[in-house]
Amino acid sequence: MRLSCNHLIVVISLLLFSCGSTSPQDNDNPSLLDPSAGLPSVADLDRLSATVPAQLSVLGREAVGSSSMAFIDNDDMLLPALPGQSSYALYSIHTGTTDVTQVGFELTDTTVAENVWIGAPDYYTGRWSFTQFTVGMNSLDVGAIRSRSYAGNVYIAILTHDDTFTRVKRCYVDLEVPEWRRYTIDATGSPGIRSAMAMIGNTPGIVYERYDGGGTYELVMAGTTSLTPLSPADWNITFIQPGFVDPVFGLDLISVDNKPGMAMMMDHLTPGLTNVWYAHGNVAQPPTGAGWTWSHVGVGVDSDEISLASVDGKPAVAFESREANNGNSIHYGYASRPDPQDSLDWTVVVAADSFDPLYDYSGIRLFNYLNHPALLFYDHIDQFIEYGYGATSTPTGPADFSNGYVAPDQFSGEGIAGIEYGGLPVVLYTDSSGSGLHYARGTSATPAAPEDYNQKHVIDPRLVGNRIEIVRPPLGLGIAYREGSSGSLIYAWIDSGTPGSGGAWHMAPVDDRPMSGDIGLVIMQDGNPGICYHTVNPDALQFAQMIP
After folding, report:
1. What is the pLDDT of residues 257-281, one digit of tens each?
2. How far apart are CA 493 and CA 274, in angstroms?
3. Rounded to two decimals, what is the model's pTM?
4. Tens of pLDDT along 161-180?
5. pLDDT at residue 129 in the model
6. C-alpha torsion sign, points 124, 125, 127, 129
7. CA 318 to CA 247: how far, in whole Å?
8. CA 313, CA 433: separation in Å to the nearest integer?
9. What span, in angstroms and rounded, lies between the C-alpha atoms of 301 and 380?
10. The pLDDT of residue 427
11. Beta strand segments in 39-84, E
């Protein structure tokens, strides 16, 4: 039974009155969200994208819009309607590139079924389509309308009218998403909270820290000779260095000449200061610690983070350091050879200097941009994310870096990542609340200001963890990150081209168990992603690979 014309006008008016103050974003046609078009003027937000069976759901409390009478009770949304009045909640589920024919919902404690209406917007007509609720009904048929917006969102509204009550437990869609092969690599001593992964030749390698049970920490490497490791038996764990009194602050891993290169940051003798080390292996996986050659990159620096990349075929490291003027700066260290033997093989220069003792930087990321260094970092004083491009692979100081802000608004800098894609820099970052994974592409190698970036959009608006990893598959881009509220692991990707909105991204859950710590992401020999990560329960280092 369809809602009568008079009822439809009342319902739409009520919806628009409450939603009209919010600005739309990420829409293919913003006029479709204009009140005069009969659709709610709420932000067209991305929630979760997808392309094997899985269910994407949002809890009742996760409404993107609601009337003043609606209120949250734990994970539910309560919709009481007074006599002659209405109450509603509006939900958004991001399906990315995938259309759906049914949107499911779960209602309980409904008092008058015929006074509950379920609606979805039709992006062909620019109008809402409402259906009267009946006892036992748990889904809305949207196969005959265009329910997916340009940004890849499917909306559903639950409305009560005239002395009626219902409780919204959740709304959901059923989709086909990729299947992942998942297993534990190591469950000894909280392994993998600090970890890094890279392709060493044509197989993945992981370096990570674990507690040895005797009061100290140790560095180990997990390696495999299998192009497609199917189980823990396919991995071999070897020692790099035992006996650290304090845990390391940062790890990163690259491959140079098909051998592992690792950067590590650990405590200095002076409290509050850290040392930056680099070690390279003499084979793809050295059987003992004797197979690693260590060199100092920075001694007694004041840094919380490091980032490692191979630039022009040689290792390069970025980190923060306190200068003689007591101001913090971003340092860039590069080796003169692929296998540095000692500190004399390293040159360390200032890439960005605040000249202010109050300055502090975080979110430091380094990536190779066409054999030039490219830096990303968060400036805590100005509260902006900055991008710095090195004009040469062997810079001598700040003058060789062109630095500029990425976004016009102040962002938290909790999560930053970058990569060269199609000859241009791509930047991922989170917003001021730590929620919202943003995408922006520079229009040149040296974008100097926010207006020098295009294709800006939100990939995922939810709370996002502070580790974001990005890779370039044979086609497109791939991203791994932690969803902040649940702690689950997410993988997002585009198959080709340049994304213009969140609707261009496929997105699928990899592991819904809460995780913490670092994430490693590589493209395996078969072209599919492999991810390493640390789960909280069980306390273990995990590996997942997308099954072709």
Report:
1. 999 999 999 876 667 778 999 999 9
2. 36
3. 0.80
4. 999 999 999 999 987 778 89
5. 83
6. negative
7. 20
8. 38
9. 18
10. 96
11. 53-59, 65-66, 71-73, 76-81
Q: Is residue 480 part of a domain?
A: no
Residue 413 pLDDT class (50, 70, 90 cuts)? low
Residues 140 and 156: beta-carbon distance below 8 Å: yes
pLDDT at 303: 79
At 37-86, the pLDDT tens digits run 333 433 333 333 334 567 788 899 999 889 989 999 999 999 999 999 99
Q: How many CB atoms lie within 10 A of CB 122?
A: 18
Q: Using CB atoms within 10 A of its CB, is residue 190 exposed (0-12), middle (13-18) or buried (19+)?
A: buried
Structural domain includes residue 110:
yes
Closest of 6, 23, 17, 35 to residue 121, by C-alpha = 35
Report the 3 state secondary structure along 109-140.
CCCCHHHEEEEEEECCCCEEEEEECCCCCCEE
The count of structural domains within the chain is: 1
End-to-end CA distance of the chain: 44
Return the biggest CA–CA distance within the chain. Answer: 81
CA distance 514 to 443: 37
Question: Which CATH number belongs to the domain containing residue 169 in this structure?
Answer: 2.60.120.260
> Over the range 263-282, which residues count as b (16 or more CB within 10 Å of their CB) and which as e?
bbbbbbeeeebbbbbbbbbe
Question: In 3-state terms, the chain is what percent helix, strand and coil (to 5)?
Answer: 10, 55, 40
- CA–CA separation, 240 and 194 (whole Å): 14
Cis peptide preceding 538, ω within 30 of 0: yes
Does residue 335 fall inside a structural domain? no
Q: How far apart are CA 90 and CA 19, in angstroms?
A: 9
Question: Which one-letter DSSP state was computed for residue 4?
Answer: P
Residues pairing with 378 in the sheet: 362, 385
Q: CA-CA distance, 167 to 111, in Å (whole number)?
A: 10
Closest-CA residue to 461 (of 32, 75, 38, 152):
152
Tell me if 68 is assigned to some domain: yes
Instruction: State how far the alpha carbon of 148 is from the alpha carbons of 27, 186, 493, in Å.
Output: 11, 42, 19
Higher pLDDT, 289 or 433: 289
Q: Which domain holds residue 119?
A: 5-176
Half-sphere exposure of 134 (CA within 13 A, CB side): 5
